[in-house]
Structure to design on (467 residues):
């Protein structure tokens, strides 16, 4: 016999059913897809962007109560890539930008050509609402298509990502956990013999980004191995779904936590960090969950605000965090298993201790820009460690700090979300909390760093990326 103790709220079945009905209903007040023909103004705007390069959208996170918390909302502003490279251009999203609907920091994605921005509101009354906008330049972002809520499936503060399938699909996830104990005892009288294991119930929803409708939703119960479970380990957070090269498997990054089996309290002691793990599902069915584990990297693979895994040259390359040996870039091969012959340790490559990947993005040539901090990073006004950028080569397994970008103690990238990629060029934002900065453009092939447009900041706020 056993008793279930719920740690986090599981979505009720009736809510799911209601959500499915709402998603399919034409009477729920959502806007019907925009089928109007292209206007003359839209054509002129697109032609201008084509002549001056693709759109680059910059996002700023406004301060809520404390500097760098980003809880005051998200504002976005777009310029052409030509303007983004011009240091005489000023970009001021906090005064002139478009407010991306979200109670806190919006979770933004952009189309591969930069012409469309996708948003799912985070928390609050509109939490879980999906919307998309055509990029028109400056603070003009025009709503397009229908809106839909994914809150019935993954809650009002969803962790979601745009899959790299030609801007067709988004995927969002959630997890809830249940400690299983022998019902002969109560949580107040637990011994090391009564704790059994912890189940993690995951939910995964896929969203049609073109027609604004739910594609699929599945729930699964994930439990670690008998030995790991008995010791109190369990999956406590998941994020960053990524498609494999064949398009038939979905990888979901996972964070592992540990409970003290004798108390059911979170274990904060000095315990062993297990090998990095990833959940693998069949795609598009979202069925047949399995777990794969790395023997090279240890720590978490769920990332935070930025995409944590990318497809390159037939394999998926994934960063890990909170690795006691420093963050790694891990490789999942075409066989859907970790390739443990690929050992890319960022402590070794960067010559630091405790490297921690905050956000990264490769160009098509396998060279990437990576944001990181490390042990000893000075703590700035936000209470977080000073951050840096590096140029990474996935093939050579090298990482070099970008020294042509200015750094200071209040420059931190904990909430950094996105880089804009245009061919082999990667656009990033550099600005300390509450201070002005600039766009920088990295030619990943040559390593050349170009200082671009000035970013105008306001007190306590910060920039969270380029798309």
């Amino acid at each position: 016999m056993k008793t279930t103790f719920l740690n986090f709220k599981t979505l009720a079945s009736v809510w799911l059913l209601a959500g499915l009905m709402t998603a399919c209903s034409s009477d729920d007040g959502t806007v019907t897809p925009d089928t109007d023909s292209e206007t003359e103004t839209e054509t002129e705007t697109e032609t201008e962007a084509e002549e001056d390069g693709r759109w680059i959208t910059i996002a700023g996170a406004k301060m809520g109560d404390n500097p760098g918390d980003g809880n005051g909302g998200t504002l976005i502003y777009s310029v052409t890539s030509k303007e983004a490279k011009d240091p005489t251009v000023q970009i001021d999203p906090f005064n002139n930008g478009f407010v991306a609907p979200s109670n806190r920091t919006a979770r933004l994605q952009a189309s591969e050509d930069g012409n469309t921005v996708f948003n799912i509101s985070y928390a609050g009354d509109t939490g879980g609402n999906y919307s998309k906008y055509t990029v028109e330049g400056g603070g003009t972002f025009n709503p397009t298509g229908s809106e839909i809520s994914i809150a019935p499936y993954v809650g009002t503060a969803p962790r979601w990502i745009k899959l790299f399938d030609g801007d067709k699909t988004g995927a969002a996830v959630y997890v809830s956990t249940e400690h299983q104990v022998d019902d002969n005892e109560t949580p107040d009288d637990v011994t090391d013999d009564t704790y059994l294991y912890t189940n993690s119930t995951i939910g995964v929803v896929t969203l049609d980004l073109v027609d604004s409708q739910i594609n699929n939703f599945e729930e699964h119960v994930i439990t670690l191995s008998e030995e790991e479970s008995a010791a109190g380990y369990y999956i406590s957070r998941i994020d960053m779904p990524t498609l494999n090269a064949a398009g038939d498997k979905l990888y979901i990054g996972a964070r592992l936590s540990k409970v003290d089996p004798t108390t059911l309290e979170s274990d904060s002691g000095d315990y062993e960090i297990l090998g990095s793990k990833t959940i693998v599902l069949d795609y598009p069915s979202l069925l047949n969950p399995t777990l794969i584990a790395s023997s090279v990297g240890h720590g978490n693979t769920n990332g935070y605000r930025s995409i944590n895994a990318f497809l390159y040259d037939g394999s998926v390359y994934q960063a890990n965090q909170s690795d006691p040996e420093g963050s790694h870039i891990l490789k999942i091969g075409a066989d859907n298993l970790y390739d443990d012959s690929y050992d890319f340790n960022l402590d070794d490559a960067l010559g630091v201790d405790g490297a921690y990947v905050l956000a990264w993005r490769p160009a098509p040539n396998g060279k990437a820009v990576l944001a990181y901090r490390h042990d000893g990073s000075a703590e700035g006004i936000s209470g977080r460690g000073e951050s840096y950028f590096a140029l990474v080569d996935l093939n050579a397994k090298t990482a070099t700090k970008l020294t042509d970008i200015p750094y200071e103690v209040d420059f931190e990238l904990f909430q950094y979300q996105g880089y804009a990629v245009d061919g082999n060029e990667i656009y990033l934002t550099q600005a300390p909390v509450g201070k002005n900065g600039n766009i920088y453009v990295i030619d990943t092939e040559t390593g050349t760093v170009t200082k671009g447009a000035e970013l105008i900041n306001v007190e306590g706020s910060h920039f969270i990326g380029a798309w």
Observations:
- The helical segments are 13-24, 40-51, 81-84, 93-96, 151-154, 226-230, 346-350.
- Residues 132 and 197 are 42 Å apart (CA to CA).
- Residues 13-24 form the longest helix (12 residues).
